[in-house]
Each structure stands twice: as C-alpha cells, then as structure tokens.
Amino acid sequence: MSVSEAPAATVEPPPAEQPGRGQWWSPVRRTGNRRAPGRAAGQRSRQGGKWWVPWLFLAPALILFTYFKFIPMGRALVMSAQDVRPYLGNTWVGTANYSEILGSESFRSALKNTVVLAIGQTFGSMLLGFCLALLVEGQTRKLSFIRSAAFLPVVVPMAVVAELWRIMYHPTSDGLLNQVIGLVGLGPSGFINDPDTSLASIAVTGIWRGAPYDMMIFLAGLAGIDRGLYEAATVDGASTRQRILHVTLPGLRPVFAILFVLAAVRGFRSFTEVFLLTNGGPNGSTEVVMTLIYKLGLEQNRLGVGSAGAVLLFLATLVLTVCVQLLRRRRTA
Amino acid sequence: MPRSLRKFAAGSLAGVLVLAVAGCGAGGAKPVAQDPKAPLELWTRTTPGGDGEKGMKKLAAAFEAATGQKVVVTAIFDDFETKLSQRAAQKDLPDLVLNDSSQLGTMVSQGIVREVDLGSIKGSDQLLESALSVAKSGDGKTYGVPYSAQASALLIRKDWRQKVGLAAPKTWDDLTALAKAFTTQDPDGNGKADTYGLAVPGSTKRGYASWYFSNFLWAAGGDFIAKQSDGKYKPAMSTPESVAATKWFRDLACTSKVIQPGAATMDTPPTNETFEAGRTGLYVVGPYLLPRFDAGLGKDKYEVVPVPKGPKDSTVLAEGGSVYLMAGSANEAGQNAFASFMISADGQKLGMAGQKAFNVQLPVNKTVDITAVRKDPRWKVYADAYRDSGRYAPSIPNWTPVRQDTADTINALIADCSLDVTAELTKLDKKLAETLGKQGVAAS
After folding, report:
1. Coil, helix or strand for B291?
2. Could you tell me which chain B residue has the CA closest to the CA of A29?
3. Among A83, A192, A281, B215, which is least packed by CB within 10 angstroms?
4. According to the UniProt entry, where is the signal peptide (chain B) (predicted)?
5. Which residues from A are below 8 Å from B280, CB to CB?
6. Residue B313: how many CA atoms within 13 Å on its side-chain side?
7. Residue B196's closest chain A neighbor by CA?
8. Residue A149: exposure state from Cβ atoms within 10 A (0-12, 13-18, ≥19)
C-alpha cells in the first residue's frame, strides 16, 4: 500500500473488523483485516496457498530469532534464579538474586539515573528532531544534501561519537565547549567530570546523536500530512505557529507515539555512551542500569545477579511499551 | 487476541523456556578424555596485532620446537574477562590463559581453572616465593603458575624537572612540590598553563582508581582489608592510616590541583596519552609502558625512579601474570608442559628478549638475573622495587568487588571535592564488610 492510498491512520478510521475470517494460525490474518485499505488485499491473502506457506517464509527469521534472541532471553531468565558457576554447576537460589538487586542502594540510584536520562534523551531528541524536520522539510534538491548531513551523527559509530564529545567536554577553559560557553561568560564547567553536570552532559550527547534519527521519522510523517489542510488553514488566516499547532502536530500524533516507544526503549538501554564517557562515574552520578548490570555480571562475574537486573529492565521496558500501545489504541479507536 | 491465539502464544513461550532450561543442562566438571597430541589454545591479554602478540607467538614457536606440541595463540585486550565468561558459558574454554595474577580468585570461584599440582610443573622449585604466593587461593591450594612479575615505579619528565630546578623526589612532600612546580611553572615553556603534575587514571573501569591508589595507601600503612589472626579479613579503609593516605591523595586533586583535569573519567589509554603528549610530568606505572614511551616521547625525555617513600615505608603495588590451566582441557599434560616451559630459565630469558613489548616483565625464576639479560638500568629500578617493596593484592575468593568498591569511592572523592573523606570511607568499609561476608572471609 502506498502513502497516497491511505493518507493517515488518524484521519481515516481503519476499516471495520471482519470477524470470523481466516484461521488463528495464519500470520497474515490480522494484518489482512486491520491494515488493508481496500478489499483487494484482504481477499488476496485468502486466495490459494496453504496455511503454512507464510510460516515457511518466516522460518529463517524465526529460527535466527530463536537461537540468538529467545533462547538467550530464556537462559537469562533461568540464570536470574541461580548462582551461576559454569564449571562447578549452577545452584538454584530462588528469588535471592532479585531481592539482592532490589535491596541494593546502587540499583535504586542507577534506576533513577536511567529514568532521568531516558526522559531527558527522549524528549530532547524529539524536540530537536521535530525542529530539524520542520527546517529541512520540502522537495528542493539541496535539502536532501542538508538532510544527509544532518543525519550523519546517527551513522557515526558510538565509540567515535563518545571520543569526540570527550574531547569537546575537556574540563579546563581551553576545552572546546568551555571556550564556547566562555564567550557568554560562563564556565569553565567540568561537564562529564563533575557529578552535578555529568548526567546532563551525557544526555546532551545522546540528544545530539538521537535527534537526526527522530528527524527522519518526523519527515516521513510530515510527508503524509495532506497539503490541502495547510492551504485551507492559510486561507482561513492561520499564522505559522497556529498551523504547526493545529495541523502539523495533530497529523503527527501516530509518529509521536512510535517515536516515544522507540526512544524510551533506547533510553532505558543506553549503555555505550555512558560506558565510554564516564563508566558510571564520577561518584556514581551517571551509573545506569545497563552499566551496573555489566559491572555485576561481566566484571565481577556475578552473572546471576546481573541477569536478575536484566530481567527487571526487560519487564520495565515491556510495561512501558504495552502502556503506550494501549493508550494509543484507545485514542485511535 | 482470541483465546486460541493466546494459547498458542503461551505454548510457544513455554517451548522457548524448556529449550532454554535444556540448554543450561546439568553442571559439574566432568573428566575429559585426554589426548596428549591435541593442540593447545592459548589466550593472552595483550593488544591483537601488537608486539606482545608477536612475542607470545615467538614463545609458542620455541615451545613447539622443544616439545613438538602445537600452541595456537589468540591475543585479546578489550573485555578479556567478558569474552572468557562467554566461552565458559559455552563450556569450551581455551586450554591456557595468560592474565593478571589478581584474577585468580575470580577464576577459581567460577570453577574455570583447574588446580595445579606443582610436582608436575618442572622447575616450580625455582620460583620466587613471593610470586608463588599469589598463585595460592584462600584455601591454600595452587591455581595457576606465575610467569612474570612487575612493580610500580615513578616516571618523571626529566627535562621539566631540570627546568624547574628540583631533585628527584624522595618523600611525599617532595613529590607534591615537584607536581606543583610542573603545574604552575610552565615547564614546557609554551606560555600557557596547560601542564599538570601527576597523571592518574581515576576511572572506575576495571577498578583503575583503586589499582593506582594502592601504591600510596600501602606506603602510608593503610590497607583495603586487613587480615586477622584467624586468617579472615576486616575492612580497613577507615583506619587513621587509610584516611590520612586518602586525604593526601585527594588533596592532590582538590587542594593543590596537580592531577590532570578529567582524571575521574580517564582509564589508562587517555592517561598514558597525557604523559606521552607532555600534559603531565609524573606517572606511577609498571614497566610495560617503557617501550611505548621510548618510542612516543623519547628515551632521553623521562627518567625512572623508585616511588617516594610514604609515611610508613616504600611499599608499592606488585602485580604479575600467571599461566592459568583451564578446566575441561583435553590435554592436561600439554598444559603442564607449557607452564614448565614459561618458568624455565630459557623461557624467561626468551620472554624478556627484544626491545619492545615483553611477555616477561621481571623474571620469577630465581636463577635468572635481570641485569644479565637487560643492560638498561631502568629495569633494575623495577626489579629492586619488586624484590624489596612489592606487595600483591591479597588472595580472597573474589578481589574484583573489593577493588571495584574502593575504586568507586576514590573516584568519587577526586571528582567531588565537597565530599567528606572520613564519612565516605566509613560508608565504604560497610560495603566492604558486606562483600567479605558474602565471600565467607569476614572476621567476626
């Protein structure tokens, strides 16, 4: 289906459910019913072919997922209830790992830092990404160059990004960013070396890297908004601000929901930038759940406790995602 | 979701879990069928493609020529322990691992190394007592064969020191004064205040902050944990000696400000760079960096002296490498033979040969005289420091959490000058007590 066929899910209500069609094991059943813009696609999925054909096509991905995702996840779940010693034999400890990690001060402060960082990065990236998207929206050929340039931070490896920012964050007055803020009479700031500013500094790095990604998704969303609505608004005498507020933002609502989930999951699992920039320091001010799990599981070799932390993080992410989905479904229904 | 679909989803989830449990299988080390011809897989913690790897391959070739036993060398530097845990989880460990001696407790508690019968290691009677003692775990059994030792010494930018007109430091006060002069008197003469005294890797990664600080802590008579008469341990970071040492170290960062800025988030590579690039003039470090600084900075630009004596004595951190004979090997005889080769006089001399990266820093074999192999007098500084004042981290079941916790606190103190030293160290002692309790070595 193309974008022009189905302009925006929110503008046009999805086609009515057709209950009783298809069999429960067919993976195309739900998409066939829910998303098909016309009758043609819905009927095509029912014509010819055995029920197992789609499964056959899915098999390679499913096998890979089973081996590289589901089995490790299952093992982590098992390990979270064990004292893990691969060569001496694991012993079952029940919920001891969970009570240990939940009772530890460091986990709670890491959780707090993770939430703060996730919120800061999510909203920061969305705001900056939205502004960027508005700036570079359009058809001109030159814009595609600017868009590619703006997208660069996403494709640069995280290790390079971290090293770059470490240099920019140099804590003396001849550091790059300190020179910049020195122009307006501020600083020098310690940035990642000062417990008061370290978490915010990491969030800035994350926003810088995440915003262009959000920008691309916003651009795709903007392309789906009916131009006629803008024209109508202009005719009615709406200012630029009013057009953004009453046409663009409502039109982008599904995009916001998707971005929110993606960014929140990314924020919850942020590891590389923290590990490379501060490794949780100074004074634990940037310790997030992922770096704590890494330290517990892989540096101190307490894989059971580390797994328990990983399972808790997974549950938190799952709950968040499901909540956003439910909220979204209720609103669009 | 219709009920049938939900049932299906639940069923497949259960299936995944069953698979996962089956994958874990029953633990316990099973005897492995022995094959004395099986090639040995060796992991060494050094930069892949670097000189350390080349040297190790040379050693492996010499071993192969002497015994006909094949050794496959793999060099890994980043996340060495992580990768080893992954192989342990697959129950397919390399046969031999060359890593820091202080990893012993961790590896023993994981059950991934096998006990060493010193009787079957030829030449083990020629090992230095101090080196051998680190291969013994808390239960008195030997796991691993030390093949290399090292201690810390102080590197000084010689040209800077001459410019500020001070002598090589003998005491901590001299050290502070020299560091201050390096920070304030523009020793590189570029007209900018961009030089600092002491280079410190103060990051918490791998516990670097604690690693570095141990030199000063021990020289002041302080300690991380103190052994009691019953062989168990008590936390000792809040004793007056430990507090005084911490305060002194912290003042370098907070009061006299002679430690390089950003130390709190620097692990070793960026810290090495500050010394190499002429931003810091003093660095307490092991001998393995000499080849790098000779090449990058110039041999004539810096000098190697013993670390100045602390309030109590000149104790410095001793470390070393051990050959670990990994569990589940199909060729235990080959493992023993390789360990014997590494500690033999020939093996030690070969490991010390060359000009670049050395696999053997200081010999552990009593019959090998370092001055006969290496004419460079700087090595004697290290050899003397090791022999006279070297001290290893204690052998408790798992030293890593102790190092990590102390590193966290030291890191906090040099990063945040508003923290109260005594309060933080008291908090740390509580944590250490917990850790010792978990490991079953806490004194009542």
Report:
1. helix
2. B5
3. A83
4. 1-22
5. none
6. 11
7. A172
8. exposed
- Is the domain B153-316+396-438 a CATH 3.40.190.10 member? yes
The pLDDT, as a whole number, for residue A45 is 53
A295 contacts B264? CB cut-off 8 A: no
pTM beyond cutoff 0.90: no
Task: Decide: B132 and B284 in contact? Cβ < 8 Å.
Answer: no
For residue A270, what are its two tokens?
A: 């942020």
How far apart CA B90 and CA A282 sit, in angstroms, is 35
- CA dihedral sign of residues A62, A64, A67, A72: negative
- In this structure, the number of other CB atoms found within 10 A of the CB of residue A254 comes to 16
CB B154 within 8 A of CB B282: yes
Contact across the interface for B205 and A85, Cβ inside 8 Å: no
Measured CA to CA, the distance from residue B398 to residue B415 in angstroms comes to 27
Count of positions (residues) in chain A:
333
How many angstroms separate the CA atoms of B122 and B344, rounded?
8
**Mutating which of B204, B279, B280, B410 best tests the A interface, going by the most A Cβ atoms within 10 A?**
B204
For residues A76-95, give the mean pLDDT: 84
Burial, B19: exposed, middle or buried (Cβ in 10 Å; 0-12, 13-18, 19+)? middle
Min CA distance, B74 vs chain A (Å)? 20
Question: Which pair of tokens denotes residue B360?
Answer: 């053997």
* Rounded distance between C-alpha atoms, residue B282 and residue B157, angstroms: 7
- For B350, the token pair is 């070969």
Contact A85 B412 (CB under 8 A): no
Total residues belonging to chain B: 444
Cβ pair B52, B43 in contact under 8 A:
no
By the CB < 8 Å criterion, does A192 face chain B? yes
* Shortest CA distance from A291: residue in chain B: B205
> Could you tell me if A277 lies within 8 Å of chain B, comparing CB atoms?
yes
- Which of A33-47, A105-119, B308-322 shows the lowest mean pLDDT across its residues? A33-47
CA distance B248 to chain A (A): 19
Contact B29 A88 (CB under 8 A): yes
Enumerate residues 6+ apart whose C-beta is below 8 A from B296.
Answer: B276
Taking the domains of chain B in order of start, what are their residue ranges? 3-151+318-391, 153-316+396-438
Residue A117 CA to residue A211 CA, distance in Å, equals: 15
Cβ contact, residue pair A283, B415, below 8 Å: yes
In the three-class reduction of DSSP (H, G, I as helix; E, B as strand; rest coil), residue B95 is classed as coil
Q: What is the identity of the amino acid at B374?
A: R
Return the bridge partners of B302, or none. B157
In tens, the pLDDT along A285-318 reads: 899 999 999 888 877 778 889 999 999 999 988 8
> Which one of A74, A75, A280 has the shortest CB-CB distance to B204?
A280
Set out the domains of chain A in order of their start, with CATH numbers.
104-332 (1.10.3720.10)
pLDDT of residue B192: 86
**Class level of CATH domain B3-151+318-391:** alpha beta
Please tell me the predicted confidence (pLDDT) of residue A5.
Answer: 40
What are the tokens at B266? 């620097």
Cα B17 to Cα B39: distance, rounded to the nearest angstrom: 37
What ipTM does the predicted assembly reach?
0.72
Give the pLDDT confidence of A216-228 residue by residue, as tens digits.
899 888 888 888 8
- Looking at per-residue confidence, does B75 or B28 come out higher? B75
